[in-house]
Amino acid sequence: MTEFDSRVRRVRPDQWQLGTPCQGWSVRDLVNHLVYEQLWAPELLAGCTVEQVGDRFEGDQLGGDPLHAWVLAAAAAREAWISPKALQRPVHLSSGRSTAVEYGWQMTLDLGVHAWDLARAIGDSEQLDPALARTLLEYATEHAEEFRGSGLFGAPVPVPEDAPAQDRLVALLGRKP
User: Would you say the pTM of this structure is higher than 0.70?
Assistant: First the structure.
C-alpha cells in the first residue's frame, strides 16, 4: 500500500487523464480501481459476502478529489487489515470462499503492480522496494497459471532469466519493463 500511496500523492492535476500500462485505463481509472478495491476490504474482512455488498462501490469513487478518496479508502482498508484476528477469518470473494491471508496476497500484488503502472504513467520512479518485488514475484510465479486464465493480466512478456525481480514481476503480469 505504501508504494501505491507514495505515487498517487504525486499525481499532478494535469496527469489524471494520462494513459497507463493497463490497456484502456487512464490514471484516474487506475486510481479508481484501487479505491474500489480498498473499499471492499473492510466489508469482506468483516465477513460480508459479495452479494451483501452488492454494487455499492460501482462507478466513480473519486469524485472531485481523487487523492482524498484514495486516502479515506486506504485508511479504512488499513484499519480492517490490522484489526484483531483479521487474518484468521475466511473471506467471500467473487471467486468463492478464501482465507484472509490469500486475499491479502491478492491485494498486495494488485497494489504493487499498479504502483509500477502509476509510476510509469506519471513519469515517477518505477523502482519498487526490492524485497517487495522479490516477494511478489514469488507469489505471482506460484499463481501464474491461475492468472493466465483469469483475464486480469496480459500475456507474459519475455525477459532474460537474470533480469531483476521487479522486471520479471511486471513482465510476468503482461507489462514491458
Answer: yes
